[in-house]
Automatic annotation (TrEMBL), chain A:
Keywords for this protein: Iron, Metal-binding, Signal
Record's protein name: Iron(III) transport system substrate-binding protein
PANTHER family membership: IRON-UTILIZATION PERIPLASMIC PROTEIN (PTHR30006:SF15), THIAMINE-BINDING PERIPLASMIC PROTEIN-RELATED (PTHR30006)
Source superkingdom: Bacteria
Transmembrane segments: none
Gene Ontology CC, one term: outer membrane-bounded periplasmic space
From TrEMBL, chain B:
A GO biological-process term: transmembrane transport
SUPFAM superfamilies: MetI-like
Protein name as annotated: Iron(III) transport system permease protein
Keywords noted in UniProt: Cell inner membrane, Cell membrane, Membrane, Transmembrane, Transmembrane helix, Transport
A Pfam entry, by short name: BPD_transp_1
Claim: Disulfide bond is one of the keywords in the record: no
Amino acid sequence: MNYFALSRRFGRSLVSPTLVGAFAVGALLAGGTASARAKTVLTLYSAQHPQVVGMLTKAFTAKTGIPVRVHSGEGPEIANQIVREGKRSPADVVFVENSPELTLLDQLHLLAPVAQATLAVVPATDSAANGDWLGVLERQNVLAWNPKLIRQAALPPHLRDLALPAWRGKIAIAPSDADFLPLVGAMIHAKGKAKTLAWLRGLKRNAKIYQDDESVVAAVNRGSVATGIINNYYWARLRTEMGPARTPSRIAHFAPQDVGNLINVSGAGVLASSKHKDAAQQFLAFLVSTVAQRDLAASTVDYEYPLRPGVAPNPLLDPMASLHPPAIAPVDLGNDRAAAALLQQAGLI
Amino acid sequence: MTKIPPQATRRPPVGLVLLGAVPAALVILPIAITVADAVTAGAARMLALVWRPLVGDLLINTVTLTLAAAICCVGLGTASALLVERTDLPARSVWAVLATAPLAVPAFVASYAWVSISPALEGFGGALVVTVFAYTPLVYLPVAAALRGLDPALEDAARALGDTPWRCVRRVVLPQLRPAMLGGALLVTLNIMVEFGAFALMRFRTFTTEIYAAYRSGFDGAEAAALAIILLLFCLGCIAAEALLRRPVHYARIGRGTQRRGVPYALGVWRLPAVLGFAALAGLSLGVPILTVLYWLTRHGADAITPAEASPLALLTAAISTIELGLGAAGLTLILALPLAVLSARWQRFSLTMPLERGAWLAQGVPGIVIALALITATIAAVPALYQSTLLLLLAYAMLFMPFALVAMRAALLQSDRRLEEAAKSLGAGWRRVLWRITLPLAAPGFGAAAALVFMAVTTELTATLLLAPIGTETLATRIWGDTSTLAFAAAAPYAAVLITLSMAASWLLARRFGMAALHAQAGG
């Protein structure tokens, strides 16, 4: 670098000394913003899509007068952050898209029990068995496919088929997306570690790797790759954005009860270390209230299935009865650690 | 009787030396934490983490991209420097500005522009396009400077002995430009190593993107440390190579004197192709990002994939946070850099001055993601009060951009006459009074420039901001990132427009006052 030339230029120049003063004032201003935290606010660590959380927190604050500040990140990142923060975590509520992250926190005794009245609102199988976290919404793993590149009849009946040599270059995955981990966890539960590792190695050979499900579904839609493993709501969101005319891609389910049809549960929990447990419980109750669940179902930003009975899902989604998920409960998925280790061993992350 | 013994100027006060060690310590800190993470994991685990398929993929990605980008950047940068400095290209001063202006467009914003035009650009091709157009100025600037410093006598001799212009350029001019070209190529390499946002948006996997992925997958200990150490070795290697290159190179010319400029080569029939080629380069490196942002500004923000509500208020809040953080970081960085700048300008021969300076320079080889993860680890474990605080983010900025402040502050101090300080001392003023009344006022313009450089760098910084911003703080950069990584290109456009405007305005002011070399320093991080 030509620092010599730079030095000469700087020496000769003239900038008003007030500039330095301005920067000093700026330093004070920036420092000042950090200290404005006296009022009681609920701190939410969220791995849900920010627009969904924005909608929910706004409605919650309007209803209760309790302001919510949101820290966003990927599910495993948020969970790991809370683990590291331990008892000092500033979080009151954790709201994530996949249950294994909550399982991890619960195993480390970082969650407080959810109020019974709130738990009673949703089916018991969709929340923690011990009542330490609450199921809020759910969605399904599906295969997005592009009819220009593949015939419907050629789609694989089973998730495990995608590791076969015939699928080389025809499948897209996002192994570093938080939504992929539960699928690996389900595979481990169904087939064991050795077979899951072999399957992942096959995927590594066959798959085009993307960073997240959004990119996978976009790649399938524009015809870069024939199929892609996604959660169903990414396709619905893409279709809403592009319109039916520009959405040639479709989604397909695997054979009934196949691991590939796994349902992922979005859930929330109250931190054991929270200093605002009442407000936190109120927030959880709000998440499964009729109002919130109806708003979520009606919105064009979420496209998950509401867990509160009687609230109909968005009409763009396939009816619940057609999903045929495998008999794998949230607790069977583990806490993501084993799944992540296998992904690493296979060279996918 | 008051006298100034020569020894007094050679041995600085102990307090100054201690404070002068702070910048170096700030650089060593994240490196030490990363190494400690690795050591905690144990040799066997580290070996397993380093010796795995992913690392091989990343090495291949990084090496192929670096080679391809360096070759393209050297070709384009040298060609444009030759055209501007040594030919009769029309409107050369305009081209000179256009050749450096891409530095004011952050690489991740350019990446956003390209990937929003066609997602087919994802991967190696897109990453190459973005890096070449973003980093060609890093070669152009040193090569143009070297061209200005060449002695035309050698060329005259070659021409007199019958060389054609082409042959003369090839045999006489280009060989003399080799150090500048190589230095530029190393800068391109270093920038590729530490870049995160541009590659993440292009879905191109490099060490920085996979360190981030490891963090997001809940692995931020050994896994991230293993990748970070490989990356650090690469970056520090680049720094060392660049430092070796920067040692004085002896040109044939003796004595400075008044320099004669070489006679410009006549382009002749190549005039039009040269203009068209240059226009294409400017169009691709500047026109594409700017026009794409303008295009997306006219589109509606799509509900379905827009992460957060886009509103004028959100835009204003993000712009204000960005400016506040920029000003705060500039203030903090200058304060932390001042003692070392004084030490290096006033006690150049003191035995510790050089090592402390070199230590601080290493900051250029420590990627933002490594600093951010190390600070998170350190504060959670040892200083919970600092965790998630604005101060911590400002500290990270200070670590990243200390070299900018140092180069400008040191130069300013060297320019202000130390005899005035000595006169003040001899008249009885204490060191505080001398600093306040003599040193600082004289150096103020250069300090202003230092602050402006840090400010610009902070406003366009993405990685550390993403990881360390206090809860609820959104900057222009994090907004663009959030929207673009979910393909909400229209929603990102207003933020990108404000960011580019801010960065362009600041660069223009800096370049007008301090010349293109100021931009050059800005690009060094």
